[in-house]
Amino acid sequence: MGMNKDNPPLSTNFIQNIINEDLKNGKNDGRVHTRFPPEPNGYLHIGHAKAICLNFGLAIANKGLCNLRFDDTNPSKEDIEYVESIQADVKWLGFDWEDRLFYASDYFDKLYEFTLGLIKSGNAYVCDLSAQEIREYRGTLTEPGKDSPYRNRSIEENLDLFQRMREGEFPDGSRVLRAKIDMASPNLNMRDPVLYRILRSTHHRTGDNWCIYPMYDYAHPISDALESITHSICTLEFADHRPLYDWVLDKVDYSGDAKGRPQQIEFARLNLSHTVMSKRKLRELVMEGYVDGWDDPRMPTISGLRRRGYTPESIRDFCDRIGVAKRDSVVDIALLEHCIREQLNQHAPRVMAVLRPLRVIIDNYPEDQVEWLEAENNPENPSMGSRQIPFSREIFIEQEDFMENPPKKFFRLSPGGEIRLKSAYIIKCEEVVKDENGAIIELHCSYDPDSRSGGATSGRKIKGTSHWVSAQHAIKAKVRLYDHLFTSENPDDCEEEGADYKSQLNPDSLRVLDDCRVEPSLAAAEPGSRFQFLRQGYFCADAIDSQEGHLVFNRIVSLRDTWAKIQKENRSNQ
Ligand code: ATP
Ligand code: MG
């Protein structure tokens, strides 16, 4: 297995329990073989990450194999761009399908052959009803369906018509091939479901070779069988399709091409608060310009999370923590944020960046002097060492760290008040300079030369500590602050009242600050590298837009850990 070695073992879950039982009973000769089967009709999202971690994770934990299979049976919606992005995303998450990359379209010939067998055994027929008529004949949950008038065509006629469907003799939508099961079944999926449709659409792999395409429910069990999959894991909405999955495996004779018989197992899909997960909706947000592409850092896509600054480890950690259940629920997005914070708290260097600069002139500091002061890179992780930062007569502090008329308990700078500059001196505000409109332009301060670490007055008690940068050394940067893409926790819920989920979009999900100043150690920040900006959160140099001379940082998360707070409240309420 070429699997990622530092991937933590999956905590045990009900699917692992099924596997344990199967292994104990010698089922599948002790093989465990899973697959991740995306349809290449969009980019992967965090829900897919759950399925990827589960399928690849179970393979790793059980010394088995996991395939990547593109479920490409619907050429009209699929695209090579998606095929490529999906492979990149799975790899980035840290998983390896080795030489087992498959496409359902690889099996089109085999499927056609199997289908001729299905017709010969009297289990499928060509039906000339229109889509509309098929719907009408299907019945409802409370009423049985009606048999199609074409249901009792002879095997010879069915074989002839199906072959001519394949030859392209009939127009799109004029005929379908259906399974002959039971129009009175309480399960609607078993009421003679469509197996093949006529569709003239160029396929990204098979080109115009085919004008008939198999339906997902038919192609999927056969693809699983042909790859000798043992545990075919899918989301809960397919539970009602399981009888059809089993019916196909019962009726199709694949035994010459495969070992064993796959078993479908359903688990609860991931829903995440403050976002949407339907590919249709994500596609709409991209195509209609509500976001800047699939990798917009606000998107719940894997490429969006990567661009935002999330690491593969943090996403795998998240998938591990949410576990695998049989009942649907909504996971708080604060947990995802907690996972990246935990990792970066240990590993990201801490630096100073002033997002909304306020100029401070230290009048008693020598005009041409520059001191290089030592600053720790990460107090949580002393092995990360320290760096030198320049201090000079003019610095920038954060606008919000000064208040002219401070309320009680404002522990930052105000007229006549003092503040400690992180890794530097204590300064005192002597004068506030304003423009003709009364807006504050700059502060004049004095500093206490003995107040640095080791100095005579370094122990003086000062309530507030601020971050700062030296004005002449600081580097201009653009900073993008992100917030939840949707204001409401469950944007889909409003659809029950007839509203559009897009009405829940957060108008302030992106704020751009164009005139930030960062310390000079960030001048050549690698695109994609991550930092803690002291007191401001964790940031990532944008992998595409940031470069030396034009720095752009994305805020991954703020420092406020709402998940830790929720956990603490839960504990104290118990
Ligand atoms: P579509 O509506 O296009 O079929 P989909 O979300 O089912 O959308 P697929 O590409 O078919 O997309 O999904 C690939 C795999 O990922 C499937 O096995 C599916 O069950 C799983 N998956 C999709 N969404 C989630 C989710 N939110 N949580 C967990 N697994 C998911
Ligand atoms: Mg699907």
Any overview of this molecule?
- This protein has helices spanning 14-24, 46-61, 80-92, 108-120, 131-137, 155-167, 216-226, 242-251, 279-287, 302-308, 312-322, 333-347, 562-573, and strands at 33-36, 65-70, 101-103, 124-127, 176-179, 194-198, 212-214, 231-235, 263-267, 270-272, 329-331, 350-351, 353-354, 357-362, 371-376, 386-391, 394-398, 418-421, 426-434, 440-448, 465-466, 468-470, 475-482, 510-518, 530-533, 537-541, 551-557.
- The longest helix is centred in the N-terminal third of the chain and has 16 residues, at 46-61.
- β19 (426-434) and β20 form a beta hairpin.
- The strands form seven sheets. A seven-stranded mixed β-sheet has the order 12-25-26-27-23-24-13, with helices on one face.
- The chain is α/β, with parallel strands linked by helices.
- The chain binds adenosine-5'-triphosphate and magnesium ion (MG).
- Adenosine-5'-triphosphate binds at residues 37-39, 41, 47-48, 50-51, 234-235, 269-270, 277, 279.
Question: Main traits of this protein?
Answer:
seven-stranded mixed sheet; 574 residues; disordered N terminus; 26% helix; single chain; 13 helices; alpha/beta; binds adenosine-5'-triphosphate; binds magnesium ion; elongated
Bound molecules: adenosine-5'-triphosphate, magnesium ion
Q: Count the E strands.
A: 27
Q: Residue share in helices?
A: 25-40%
- Average pLDDT, rounded to a whole number, is 95
Q: Tell me the strand order in the biggest sheet.
A: 12-25-26-27-23-24-13
